[in-house]
């Protein structure tokens, strides 16, 4: 599980590094996010995940920019990479996956948070890659890990508005394509 988390963090960082700041105002597949807002959301999610792994309870303001606030846009990739390394290191500890912890102030099983964030990093890496015209190389193992993270929360995500309507995929679609589709993303956009 820690390897999957680390791999999806690597996908996210690669997509962030490949995003030209000249495109930060461009739209993304997430209607509420420009490229810049998506990168900020990804960086904030990495900090939130690190705090969860470390059993830290924090009030969370979704309108704040705790990682990138005050950082020049040309330095965002480096700031994100530093936060990503801290997040990966925190989840690399097997104890991070055991028992209960908090997502911000909400108590949850640690393994559930780890699985959700593993999926979150990969899905938003795809969003960013699509928005900025980058390739995204997702292995079958990562695709399965993301599908495993998305499937249990897909309906809740649709009901809560953080996933779109499920997109139909053909028989034989890969686990990654099914994960994208379950989260309301059209795999054909890649």
Automatic annotation (TrEMBL):
Domain Mycothiol-dependent maleylpyruvate isomerase metal-binding: start-end pairs: 14-129
Alphabetical list of InterPro entries matching this protein: CHP03086 (IPR017520), DinB/YfiT-like (IPR034660), Maleyloyr_isom (IPR017517), MDMPI_metal-binding (IPR024344)
Any GO MF annotation of the entry: metal ion binding
Domain of life: Bacteria
A Pfam family annotated for this UniProt entry: MDMPI_N
Protein name in the entry: TIGR03086 family protein
């Amino acid at each position: 599980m820690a390897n999957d988390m680390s791999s999806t963090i690597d996908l996210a960082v690669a997509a962030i590094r490949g995003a030209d700041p000249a495109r930060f105002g461009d739209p993304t597949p997430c209607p509420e996010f420009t490229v810049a807002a998506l990168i900020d959301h990804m960086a904030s999610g990495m900090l939130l995940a690190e705090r969860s792994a470390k059993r830290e309870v924090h009030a969370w303001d979704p309108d704040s920019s705790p990682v990138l606030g005050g950082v020049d846009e040309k330095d965002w990739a480096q700031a994100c990479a530093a936060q990503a390394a801290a997040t990966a290191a925190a989840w690399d500890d097997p104890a991070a996956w055991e028992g209960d912890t908090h997502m911000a102030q909400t108590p949850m099983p640690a393994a559930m948070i780890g699985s959700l964030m593993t999926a979150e990093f990969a899905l938003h890496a795809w969003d960013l890659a699509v928005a900025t015209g980058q390739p995204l190389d997702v292995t079958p193992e990562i695709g399965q890990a993301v599908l495993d993270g998305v499937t249990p929360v897909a309906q809740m995500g649709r009901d809560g508005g953080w996933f779109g309507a499920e997109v139909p995929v053909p028989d034989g679609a890969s686990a990654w394509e099914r994960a994208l589709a379950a989260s309301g993303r059209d795999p054909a956009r890649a």
